[in-house]
Amino acid sequence: MRLEELGNEWRAMNEIAATKEQREQLIVATCRRVDRISGQIFRRDICETIAAVFVMIFFGRYCYVAPAERILSKIGAGFLVCWALFIISRLHRTRTIQKPASIDAPVREFCRIELDRLERQIQLQRSVLSWYLAPCMVGVNTFFIGLAGFGIASLVYCIVTLLLAWGIDALNRRAVAKGLVPLRNELASLLTQFDEAVARIEGTPGRSSNA
After folding, report:
1. SS3 for 111-164, per residue?
2. CA torsion angle for 62, 68, 72, 73 (degrees, to 10)?
3. Distance, C-alpha 151 to centroid of its chain
4. Would the pTM count as exceeding 0.90?
5. Residue-by-residue DSSP string for the chain
6. So where are the chain's domains?
7. Binned average pLDDT, 10 residues per bin, the chain of 211 residues
8. How far is CA 86 from CA 22, 24, 38, 82, 93, in A?
9. Terminal CA-CA length for the chain
């Protein structure tokens, strides 16, 4: 993104940002944060994909080698294989359904594109309990009950996995609140400032279409 392409709309906002240097520093800092968050999301998706592949290999193999009487465990294992495939697809689609903004895109376009991409990631992580944790809990508990039977061990295992799921969900929500939401707000603020500047300029006597 070239700062010299900001145009008159951005440079006219003297009431919002005191100096040109301050405006440019704000934009550069926001762009760097976007790049850093994008890198973190990409690395997260890679790690989750690798973990999902191991899940598919382990539980997929179990479906073939387990004795026929272990039908409940085999059902749980098959469910986990499908869950892992879904996780890979969901993460990849959320990240790639909209391409990142070009590095030389106008600032306004950059903000709009990256704001949309961040909103998708925020919704993804806020709903992790429904699409990620809940199916996993169903699969692992079904698998364990198939091995250990209905009893105190299965009850304790269920409670432990539920507490673990609650903790993971809480960590995800905290990560969203601390990392993604502030950046989303920065991009939304920049975009609002652009729109307000354009509106003021279009309303200036001698520059409107009716002048």
Report:
1. HHHHHHHHHHHHHHHHCHHHHHHHHHHHHHHHHHHHHHCCCHHHHHHHHHHHHH
2. -20
3. 38
4. no
5. --GGGSHHHHHT-TTTSSSHHHHHHHHHHHHHHHHHHHHHHHHHHHHHHHHHHHHHHHHHHHHHHS-TT-HHHHHHHHHHHHHHHHHHHHHHHHHHSSPPPPTTS-HHHHHHHHHHHHHHHHHHHHTHIIIIIHHHHHHHHHHHHHHH-SSHHHHHHHHHHHHHHHHHHHHHHHHIIIIIHHHHHHHHHHHHHHHHHHHHHHTSTTTSTT-
6. 3-202
7. 44 47 69 85 95 96 88 94 96 90 75 89 93 95 93 95 95 90 84 69 51 40
8. 45, 42, 22, 6, 10
9. 33
Residue 63 to residue 95: CA distance in whole angstroms: 31
- Which two three-digit tokens encode residue 129? 């309990």
The whole-angstrom distance between residue 140's C-alpha and the CA centroid of its chain comes to: 25
